[in-house]
């Protein structure tokens, strides 16, 4: 019996992918959980941010900090383009526009004519050089227990987690401030908040920009140990993120972090268990069917959460999102 | 002003005889030629109206008269097809709702808008103005907004005590009863110390015991020099607290006057056709009844001609 999947699942506890999803989910929680903005295109913000980082690094030779800044600028521009026409309208319009925009981004970067810039369907490789160059950890193999990392993997995991925790503390501070009060008020009833003299449009825009920027920065963490693949930023990613924040608690700051960890560990475990059952002929399905079945499990889990634990793992019961 | 003294309990509010659009001695709001149409129907078509400063003005009229639409227009929640209006001497036509509120004209809503998933205290704090921590950058440095937060909290506690909600301060607004939400909304509106408060059906859905307390709160507002405009269907309430009554029907101002006069005004009775009115139609003469019947039929025909909202 091959139990190596347990190690993989354990690795997901702290993997860069988990960090990236935690950060992007935190951004979505700011928009959706706290402000009530239906952003169904967080994957689009992630893609735009990732491409801004990779293109400025690879094609323009930007240093790391400037490439990160480019990511923030690019996601801000995207938030402005999507937000200016839709944030004055009813909430559903933002959902329609963002889901379409995310798909547009994905198709545009895959266009063969843009291969010199975006790498087309193959994406972009090697944008980690500027980040790895900052690595103070001497080459070698590090780890605890059976988990081993080389110096660059360890570097991104350390920086990634520190960054996520700092951002979470920052968001928590914001949400406990009068700014957060206005934001939560808008979620409850934006006309009431408007009648109290708050510029609702401006607050919604700030929230969209903040959440989008976190999505873009998440992609940097995601692509540094691997590469930038356009198809990793389809609608599926957005729905993973929604699952994560509902799992952890949409109206909490640490919920998305917990949600991301649980999500990837469980998905990885489910994958391992399924392949074990298939290889030992317990389940009458093929390995091709295995992939989709994982996502059926995710869907069922999401339904169970919304029905039985609407406030998520971390959230307080009385603050349930679907009350 | 000889014919106004009878009902005026205080200094006269108007110059001349009561009539739709009459000039006020000291107007807070002056609106001119305000029109709002929904698909050809004139929801609001007000030629001229002035709302007196420091008094309680009631806006009455049958359902669909355009009262709430007029409220929405004045407070910037809706845009008129044409028209201008000023508040406290400055034009505010076309000014967005949040800026209208900052200038001191705060409104409440017909369907209460308590922010359910915020505590009562947070609801109150949200009503305050000039909180530097509402800026995203300053929000990160508590030292910049904590002192102001303390002032706001003290004021909120005073107001909550006045409205008998102080024991609920830390509860979610969702746990309040309908009447308590009305109180909370009014208290929250007072957080910014507005010059004028506009209440859209403050008594709707409130039990009679709470109605009395709400009435006293509204009278208290006048004592502090605030201008009050409120929409109400209960004529007993209007008679009890209003200094001035404006009657709307089919988008127009059809009558204005002191409460007692307006209640006996034929145009008002016509507008209401007896509904919500404590004057029994049986008290009217036969001629008046026949007249009313004609009016009703004419109104019904008009309704059938076009789709009324």
Automatic annotation (TrEMBL), chain A:
Q: What is its main location?
A: membrane
CDD domains recorded for this chain? TM_PBP1_LivM_like
User: Does this entry carry the keyword DNA damage?
Assistant: no
What topology does it adopt in the membrane?
A: Multi-pass membrane protein
Q: Which UniProt keywords apply?
A: Cell membrane, Membrane, Transmembrane, Transmembrane helix
Transmembrane portions of the chain: 32-55, 62-84, 154-171, 208-225, 237-254, 261-279, 291-308
| Subcellular location as annotated | Cell membrane
One of its Pfam families is BPD_transp_2
Q: What is this protein called?
A: Branched-chain amino acid ABC transporter permease
Q: Which organism is it from?
A: Amnibacterium soli
Automatic annotation (TrEMBL), chain B:
User: Keywords, A to Z?
Assistant: ATP-binding, Nucleotide-binding, Transport
Keyword Transport belongs to the record: yes
* Entries under InterPro entries matching the protein: AAA+_ATPase, ABC_AA/LPS_Transport, ABC_transporter-like_ATP-bd, ABC_transporter-like_CS, BCA_ABC_TP_C, P-loop_NTPase
Any coiled-coil regions, as ranges: none
Q: Which GO terms describe its molecular function?
A: ATP binding
Asked whether the keyword ATP-binding is assigned, the reply is yes
Q: Per UniProt, what is one Pfam family of this protein? A: BCA_ABC_TP_C
Q: Which residues form the ABC transporter domain?
A: 29-275
Q: Where is the signal peptide?
A: none
Its protein name is: ABC transporter ATP-binding protein
Instruction: Report the source organism.
Output: Amnibacterium soli
């Amino acid at each position: 019996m091959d139990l190596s999947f347990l190690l993989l699942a354990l690795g997901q506890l702290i993997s860069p992918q988990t960090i990236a999803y935690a950060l992007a989910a935190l951004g979505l929680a700011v928009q959706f959980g706290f402000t009530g903005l239906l952003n169904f295109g967080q994957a689009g913000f992630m893609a735009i941010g990732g491409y801004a980082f990779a293109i400025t690094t690879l094609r323009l030779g930007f240093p790391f900090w400037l490439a990160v800044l480019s990511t923030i600028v690019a996601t801000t521009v995207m938030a402005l383009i999507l937000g200016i026409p839709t944030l004055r309208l009813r909430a559903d319009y933002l959902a329609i526009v963002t889901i379409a925009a995310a798909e547009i981004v994905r198709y545009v970067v895959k266009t063969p004519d843009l291969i010199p810039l975006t790498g087309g369907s193959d994406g972009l490789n090697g944008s980690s050089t500027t980040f790895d160059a900052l690595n103070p950890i001497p080459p070698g193999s590090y780890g605890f227990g059976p988990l081993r990392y080389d110096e660059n993997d360890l570097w991104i995991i350390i920086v990634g987690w520190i960054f996520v925790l700092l951002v979470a503390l920052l968001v928590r501070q914001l949400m406990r401030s009068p700014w957060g009060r206005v934001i939560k008020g808008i979620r409850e009833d934006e006309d009431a908040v408007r009648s109290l003299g708050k510029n609702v449009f401006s607050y919604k825009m700030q929230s969209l920009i903040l959440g989008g920027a976190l999505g873009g920065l998440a992609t940097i963490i995601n692509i540094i140990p691997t590469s930038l693949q356009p198809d990793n930023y389809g609608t599926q990613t957005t729905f993973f993120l929604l699952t994560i924040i509902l799992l952890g608690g949409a109206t909490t700051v640490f919920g998305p972090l917990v949600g991301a960890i649980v999500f990837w560990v469980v998905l990885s475990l489910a994958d391992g268990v399924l392949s074990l059952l298939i290889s030992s002929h317990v389940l009458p399905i093929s390995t091709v069917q295995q992939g989709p079945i994982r996502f059926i499990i995710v869907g069922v889990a999401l339904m169970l959460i919304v029905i039985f634990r609407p406030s998520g793992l971390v959230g307080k019961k009385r603050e349930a999102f679907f009350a | 002003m000889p014919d106004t003294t009878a009902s005026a309990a205080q200094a006269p509010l108007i110059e001349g005889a009561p009539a739709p659009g009459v000039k006020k001695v000291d107007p807070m709001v002056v609106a001119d030629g305000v029109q709002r149409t929904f698909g050809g129907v004139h929801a609001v078509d007000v030629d001229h109206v002035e709302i007196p400063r420091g008094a309680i003005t009631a806006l009455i009229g049958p359902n669909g008269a355009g009262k709430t639409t007029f409220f929405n227009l004045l407070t910037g929640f809706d845009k008129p097809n044409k028209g201008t209006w000023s508040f406290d001497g400055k034009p505010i036509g076309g000014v967005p709702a949040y800026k209208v509120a900052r200038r001191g004209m705060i409104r409440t809503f017909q369907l209460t808008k308590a922010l359910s998933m915020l505590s009562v205290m947070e609801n109150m704090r949200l009503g305050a103005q000039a909180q530097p921590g509402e800026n995203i950058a300053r929000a990160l440095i508590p030292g910049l907004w904590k002192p102001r937060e303390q002032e706001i909290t003290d004021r909120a506690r005073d107001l909550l005590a006045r409205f008998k909600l102080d024991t609920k301060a830390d509860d979610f607004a969702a746990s309040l009863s309908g009447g308590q939400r009305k109180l909370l909304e009014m208290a929250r509106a007072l957080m910014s110390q507005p010059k004028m408060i506009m209440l859209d059906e403050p008594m709707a859905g409130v039990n009679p015991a709470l109605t009395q307390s709400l009435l006293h709160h509204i009278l208290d507002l006048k004592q502090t020099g605030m201008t009050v405009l409120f929409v109400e269907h209960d004529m007993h309430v209007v008679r009890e607290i209003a200094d001035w009554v404006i009657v709307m029907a089919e988008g127009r101002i059809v009558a204005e006057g002191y409460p007692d006069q307006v209640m006996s005004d034929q145009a008002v009775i016509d507008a209401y056709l007896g509904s919500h009115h404590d004057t029994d139609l049986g008290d009217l003469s036969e001629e008046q009844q026949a007249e009313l019947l004609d009016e009703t039929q004419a109104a019904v025909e008009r309704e059938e001609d076009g789709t009324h909202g």
